[in-house]
Structure formats: C-alpha cells, structure tokens
Amino acid sequence: CTIFETLNRTGLKLSVFELLTARFWPHNVNLRTLWEAAIQKFPIIKEYEVDPYYFLQAISLASRPTPSCKRSEVLNLQASEINEWWDRVVEGFSTGLKILRDDCRVVTPKWLPYQTLVTPLAAVLAKLEPTKTPEFGARREQLKRWFWCAVFGQQYESSPNSQSAKDFSELVVWLKGGAEPETVTSLKFDPNTLRDTTPRQRAIYRGTICLVLGCAGGARDFHTQSVITGNLIDQEGIDDHHIFPASYLEKKKGISESKRRDCILNRTLIDRATNQMISDRAPSDYLAQIKNTLNFPFDAVLKSHCLPVGDDSSLMSDDFESFLTWRQKELWKEIQRV
Model's pTM, two decimal places? Predict the structure, then answer.
C-alpha cells in the first residue's frame, strides 16, 4: 500500500518491477531489497545503468520451458521463480557486463550498442553455470562472437523481446555443442555501410567505436598515451571527435555533405585537451605538433586508433578520400576478425 500511495502522490510511472514488488511482498520476497543488495555487491550493474526490469526478463527467459521475456510473461512470474533464479541472474549480469567491458571494450554505458542485448546474455550465463571452468573460457569466445554479429547485423533494432528469446534458446544449444545461432550464421555486412554510419546509426556507430578501443592492444589517449578506459574517459573528458575537423573539410576541402564529414570512418575517441588543440587545423598540422614531442610513441598511438602511419600516409598528406578508403579497409578487417 505504501508503494502504491507513494507512486500515486509523486506521479511516478508504475513499472512492472514495482507491481511485482507489491505482489511478492506477502510471499516474503522483497524485490527492492534484492535489487539494492545486487547493485551493492556488483557495482558494475549500477555503473552500466541496467534497468531492474531486465532482471525479471532474464528470469523469465531462464526459467520457462518456452523462453519469453514479453511483458505478459514477466507479469506471470511466481515468487518461487524469483527465489530460484535471482542470484544466478545477478551473477549473469555481472559476468556478462564484464565480458562486454573487458573483452568487447564497451568501456562505458554510452558505448553499449543495445541495452536490451544484455538481458539474453545474462540469462544464458545464469542457465549455464558454473563460470570458473575451461569450458566457460571457450564459451566466452562464442558469446563475444555472438555479440559482434548481433551488433553489426543490427539484430536488436526492432522487436528486442522476440530477438532475446530466439537468441537465448539458440545460444544455449550452441554453447552446449550444437548449431550456431542464426544471428551468427545469417550475418551479412557491407563495409561501405561505414561511409554512411553517423551517430544516428547508434548500433554500428557505437560498435565501431568499441572495435577501435580494442585495436592494437587498446586505443591510447593522444594527450597522455594512457590506454583509454572508462575512468580515463571521465577524467580526461574523452569523447568521439572528428579526425579531419568538420570545419576544415567544409572550408578547405569543400565537402558540404555533413554525412561524409561525420561518418564513423572520420571519428575516434579524443581527449578534451587534444581536441581543443586540433580546432579546425589540418591533420598534417596538428599531428606534427604531437609527433615532434620528444620520446612520444607517435606511430604506436596512431595504430592504436586504427589510423595510418608514415609521412606519406593519407593522414599526413591531408588526403581525405584516400583516408576514408584506407580506414574502411582496416575497420572491415577488424569486423571480420571479431
């Protein structure tokens, strides 16, 4: 009664999580307490802003003979299912997010291509305990491959609940030695798509940024040369910026089409100080300033962002079209690798 009264008085949306919190209360299951304990024990869950409703969806996927995470199915969850699956699903989310952060280089929630993709990943991990075995090491590689295929195949662009149920069922089979999921086998990707991918195409754009973060042992900050992590992004104000500045391309190169200037091929993560130094200067100009810094590992830093090196490179010769062609080829290699 207190929950409903508070929500009514404050005008807050009455979520499925709140409804089930009230429903399970007489059964000695306090969802709110369970949730607060989960985010305290595993801070990564709070860090990646996971909605508590996703936990209920993951339990619905893992506990049902016919997996489903539609709202109607979640509303039909029983207190016994919460008791049986909650801890395992919490572990699943924690492990899944660590795989995405550490192996797939989704270093902050901003760069997660699809929030909804984490639900089937957590449900699969909850279903296939334990995780501290060599078999899990092999399964981890499979899950990483599925993640990249789902991102570049844009599988969660629509009907995420149906896709989650399908992927969950097929992943369980695959990880037990069965057939590959359709998300993996059906992937078709045209690398020319990268020329048209701007921040509006969230999944491919964010996925490509994560790929770049994993290049050559980890993308390094242009200013400090530190490997870019979630903490460094916050500390140094690192964000995605143009490599060939947009104003330079428009004024000096006559490129009026914003999509060409803003495409993912012309973007990487750059710290605030370096971006201010770049301003609207040509790459050959601002990069020379970095290159001429005594003992600075210039080529290594460029390679870590999947950028060309050498005095005759398209970057140092300010050849934008050749640069796009070169980087598209290199990023396509990275996509194929993962």
Answer: 0.92
